[in-house]
Design goal:
The chain starts with 6 loop residues before the first helix and ends with a helix. By secondary structure, it is an alpha/beta fold. It has three domains: 124 residues, no CATH class; 330 residues, Glycosidases (TIM Barrel); 57 residues, no CATH class. Strand 5, helix 8 and strand 6 form a beta-alpha-beta unit. It has an eight-stranded parallel β-barrel with strand order 1-2-3-4-5-6-7-8, surrounded by five helices.
């Protein structure tokens, strides 16, 4: 039926729908930019507390060492370095052990006179003067408050700790707006022995006391570090948080904080490792799952804060330190329920121990470790996480752009609400237009009536042949209220009424030309019956195959006759003996050396052969040995017995040539 409407009218209707829809989208979206809620503006204007924004774009610096500075000038130096990077939030140590050193002995406590507030007052007042947000860390047991190790031992009475926390909150009501209950209780160095249930009791008491002072205080619990379970020394943070829930911690914290220390792998790359279950990223994901499992229906997702993260430049290079920090800040922006990030720490502290001395972004002299270019780049990163600040604040155009950027960021953070608002605005606008047009009669303009009818028919269906389009007819108001909308026939009647209105308008002075709809002739197509083609059935003759009989061939049996081998007798070959002709050796007579005999007192000849003396230092032979040798060799008196010694380093074998000559001489 829509085809019966003139082509020009259909074109106008289509353009009108597109235009109205576009206008509604722009109006619904633009209203958020040009008309922000007054309530939000007022809340920012009357805020008199430097509250910490719980957005992941919030960057602070955790500086526990600032409490141990010696002067206000050093405190100011630390804060100046933070502000130079654009950091407006600081995490401070609130050491119970140093502030309440006096044992109350069960009596009343004068919280003004009995406690030493001087150092903390100095730091908090200076940070507050600069408009910085402060996260306070309540920890370290004084000796009178614990039966365990001083500092890390559990408070004997958790109410003592809770009373101290309330006193701190009361004193710094407008300066410190968020508190962490203890630090890294999953490590025995800070909470000894490790006991999640005992920590939960401490958390409950502190939470109750802090909220009694100021319900708007943010209480951060767990405060666990990324580690593994190693005996009684450390405990896996996931197991620790799970044990906290089992002990009844749910409902006694506003956020959980985590310290994802790792010096080997960037935070964003830890999911790609085969041992990802051991990485901080996996641990914080599991903590996120635990927190979400304990949410009540309709309860808002609680945040996870990173209240410490850093790397010592004694282990890594300054370039790697900045690269890892940059990676964490960027990756954390997409983490579900991510809160603020506090980097550890401001500057190196040479009074600390081991690698703890080198966690600073600045060295001990206040110089940025990465150099000037790295300093500017890191500063720019911190500034642009939440939207870059204009380079010239006095420029109104820059301020306007900054405002628009912030508004867009807020709008995009509420995409579901924005979509719902756009849909509602479009529906209401189209409904209002159609309702107004449908009520026009008599005094309404002819062209308006035609357009209104065309719009309604366009809303009804786009093709008369589509049966499912009929229920969509009518105005949007009737659809929303659940009433039955008129059918396609009603839409055609309205078009006819509109055409009648056009004809009535001819009486008016202004002549109105009504377009006569062109009725297209209906072309009836003759149905052509296709004659089926019958194919002749071809009968194939069955050919019987005659089996071929193979002739049997008789093979003659061949009998193998064994061959008898005749033995062959080999005639022995007699070898003629070969007589070796003796070789006559020429006898060389050696003239003996003449020596002067030396006669001892008993008449014995002790002369020594000079040849033996020259060849080496041989041991001397006794007279008995000489006589035995003479008896063995021959009885001839004329044969001379010689003693020859081997050469040094050769061994004990006498020269062969001399032995031969001796034998021949005796012969």
């Amino acid at each position: 039926m829509w085809k019966c409407v003139p082509q020009s009218v259909r074109g106008i209707a289509n353009r009108a729908v597109i235009g109205v829809t576009t206008a509604a989208l722009v109006a619904a979206t633009g209203s958020h930019f040009v008309m922000p809620e007054a309530k939000q503006l007022v809340s920012y204007e009357v805020m008199n507390v430097a509250a910490i924004d719980e957005s992941p774009t919030t960057v602070g610096i955790a500086d526990s060492n600032i409490y141990f500075t010696d002067s206000l000038d050093e405190v100011m130096e630390h804060l100046d370095l933070m502000e130079s990077l654009g950091v407006k939030n600081v995490r401070l140590l609130v050491p119970w052990i140093f502030i309440q050193q006096q044992d109350p002995m069960g009596g009343p406590v004068d919280w003004e006179q009995d406690l030493d507030w001087a150092k903390l007052d100095q730091i908090v007042q200076e940070a507050d003067r600069r408009g910085m947000g402060i996260l306070g860390v309540l920890q370290w047991s004084p000796d009178w408050a614990t039966e365990g190790t001083v500092g890390s031992g559990h408070p004997t009475d958790v109410q003592d700790f809770a009373d101290f926390a309330a006193a701190v909150a009361e004193r710094y009501r407008d300066e410190i707006t968020a508190y962490e209950v203890w630090n890294e209780p999953n490590a025995s160095f800070f909470w000894n022995p490790i006991d999640p249930a005992e920590y939960t009791n401490l958390l409950k008491a502190a939470y109750t006391s802090l909220k009694a002072v100021n319900p708007d205080i943010t209480v951060v619990g767990a405060v666990v570090s990324a580690t593994l379970t190693w005996g009684d020394t450390t405990m896996n943070p996931v197991d620790f948080v799970e044990a906290m829930y089992e002990a009844g911690a749910d409902g006694f914290f506003d956020a959980i904080s985590f310290h994802p220390y790792n010096f080997d792998t960037k935070f964003s790359e830890q999911d790609d490792l085969d041992w990802r279950e051991l990485m901080p990223l996996f641990q914080v994901q599991k903590i996120r799952e635990l927190m979400d499992q304990h949410l009540a229906p309709g309860e808002e997702q609680l945040k996870i804060w990173i209240s410490e993260y850093g790397l010592p430049t004694s282990v890594v290079t300054p370039e790697k330190q900045l690269a890892f920090m940059t990676d964490l800040l960027n990756a954390w922006q997409s983490f579900s329920g991510g809160g603020p990030v506090f980097l550890y720490t401001t500057k190196d502290d040479m009074s600390a121990i081991g690698d703890e001395r080198f966690f600073g972004l600045f060295d001990e002299n206040g110089n940025f470790k990465g150099g000037d270019a790295a300093y500017e780049e890191f500063k720019r990163l911190i500034d642009c996480l939440g939207g870059c600040s204009p380079s010239n604040p006095s420029n109104p155009v820059g301020s306007l752009l900054q405002f628009l950027q912030q508004v867009i960021t807020q709008v995009l953070s509420f995409v579901p609400n924005l979509v719902a608002g756009v849909v509602s605005a479009v529906s209401n606008l189209i409904s209002s237009i159609l309702n107004g047009l449908s009520g026009l009669a008599g005094g309404s303009a002819a062209q308006t009536g035609v357009v209104g009818a065309s719009l309604r028919s366009a809303m009804a269906t786009t093709d008369a042949d589509v049966p499912t389009a009929a229920p969509v007819t009518g105005d949007l108001e009737s659809i929303e209220t659940g009433t039955e909308a008129p059918g396609a026939e009603t839409a055609v009647e309205e078009v006819a009424v509109a055409e009648d209105l056009v004809a009535v308008e001819d009486v008016v002075t202004e002549e109105v030309v009504a377009e006569v709809p062109v009725v297209e002739d209906v072309v009836t197509e003759e149905l052509v019956a296709e004659v089926p083609v019958i194919e002749d059935v071809v009968t194939e003759e069955v050919v019987a195959e005659v089996p071929v009989a193979e002739e049997v061939v008789d093979e003659e049996i061949v009998v193998e006759v064994p061959v008898t081998e005749e033995p062959v007798a080999e005639a022995p070959v007699a070898e003629a003996p070969v007589a070796e002709a003796p070789v006559a050796e020429e006898i060389v007579s050696e003239s003996p050396a003449v020596t002067d005999p030396t006669t001892t007192d008993d008449g014995t000849d002790t002369s020594v052969d000079t040849a033996g003396a020259v060849e080496g230092s041989a041991p001397k032979l006794s007279d008995e040995s000489v006589s035995k040798s003479a008896d063995t060799e021959a009885p001839a008196a004329e044969t001379k017995v010689t003693r020859s010694a081997p050469k040094a380093g050769v061994g004990g074998t006498a020269p062969k040539q001399r032995a031969v000559r001796s034998v021949r001489s005796s012969a």
